[in-house]
Design goal:
The protein has helices at 2-19, 32-45, 62-75, 85-99, 106-126, 137-142, 163-177, 184-188, 205-217, 222-225, 232-242; strands at residues 24-27, 50-54, 78-81, 130-133, 155-156. By secondary structure, the protein is α/β, with parallel strands linked by helices. The chain has a five-stranded parallel sheet. The longest helix is centred in the middle third of the chain and has 21 residues, at 106-126. The two termini are 31 Å apart.
Length: 244
């Protein structure tokens, strides 16, 4: 974990130096991925150069905003809250003739992520900063992300870490610093995109994260995984998502 953390910090520092940028913008959801990304950015380019933004919607929990605020405080980075409730409501209102009273679903959920992406990119442009993408390898490989939304960013800092590694490095960081850098609640709570009521990620990451890595790095082993105890339907479902 220490080697990975230092390597990613060095990579971010090198990217900013070579691209001529000094400031980073990050969307802070209160979750583990954005928390680790922010911690790496702070280590790489300094707390004064990292701008964190929480963008709550009507589905955002109070603890997510608190976790984002606590993270920013622990890291000493700048922090702002920009609510997307009114923007989202206005866009849904304007889209109502097209949506035509249809059942609420993916389009409405992803709209929130795309509003956030637009806000973050606008801030990054205005501040002459780079937006950092916070997606991990497991979610990206399975398509559990939103195009033009949370996939936006100039650099995907943790995109080669699976979800299990993200948790492991976050725990290592807190233990290494002997204090709560990444809020305990961000580590312990069920991961959620919070795009609809009571939403949680639809994966058991303890099982799915290593399995996705195997299917990506050693695709020839797919036929052997069932013999090793993995569920056949799960393997087929993940393969379809990865190969989409």
């Amino acid at each position: 974990e220490e080697q990975i953390y230092k390597a990613l910090s060095l990579g971010v520092q090198d990217y900013f130096t070579k691209s001529g940028h000094s400031k980073a913008v990050i969307g802070l959801s209160g979750g583990i991925d954005s928390a680790l990304t922010a911690a790496i950015a702070k280590n790489a380019i300094g707390a004064n150069n990292v701008l964190g933004f929480a963008m709550p919607s009507q589905f955002s929990s109070n603890h997510s905003i608190d976790d984002a605020r606590n993270l920013a405080h622990n890291l000493g980075i700048k922090f702002e809250i920009i609510s997307i409730k009114e923007i989202n409501h206005k866009m849904l209102e304007d889209l109502s003739p097209i949506f035509n009273g249809s059942k609420t679903g993916l389009a409405e959920e992803n709209l929130q992520a795309r509003i956030r992406g637009n806000i973050l990119m606008s801030v990054a442009n205005k501040k002459q900063a780079l937006l950092l993408n916070t997606g991990n390898k497991t979610e990206t490989a399975l398509g559990y992300c939103t195009m033009y939304g949370d996939m936006a960013g100039a650099l995907a800092v943790i995109s080669d870490l699976n979800k299990s590694q993200v948790y492991a490095i976050a725990n290592w960081l807190n233990n290494h610093m002997d204090e709560e850098i990444i809020p305990y609640n961000s580590i312990s709570k069920p991961p959620s995109a919070e795009l609809r009521p009571e939403q949680v990620d639809p994966f058991d990451y303890d099982i799915v994260s290593p399995l996705v890595d195997i299917l990506i790095n050693e695709p020839g082993k797919a036929s052997e995984l069932e013999k090793e105890g993995y569920d056949y339907e799960l393997i087929e479902d993940l393969l379809k998502k990865i190969r989409f």
